[in-house]
Design brief:
The protein has about 50 residues and is mainly α. Helix content is about 85%, strand content about 0%. The longest helix has 24 residues. The model has no long low-confidence stretch (mean pLDDT about 85).
Length: about 50
């Protein structure tokens, strides 16, 4: 999808995770909070490595 539509890979991953969450039957608010929570925890664990 990234090469065919020429979207940034991060945006494609975000859209795919949103779609999977909605298809799984989760409410939209819960999907968004799960995505932001996961993204926040990932950034907190690698933030020091990026800063260095």
């Amino acid at each position: 999808m990234t090469a065919k539509v020429r979207l940034h890979p991060f945006l494609v991953l975000l859209l795919a995770s949103l779609g999977v969450g909605l298809i799984a039957g989760l409410p939209a608010q819960q999907v968004v909070s799960a995505i932001t929570g996961g993204f926040g925890s990932t950034l907190s664990s690698i933030g020091i490595v990026i800063a260095a």
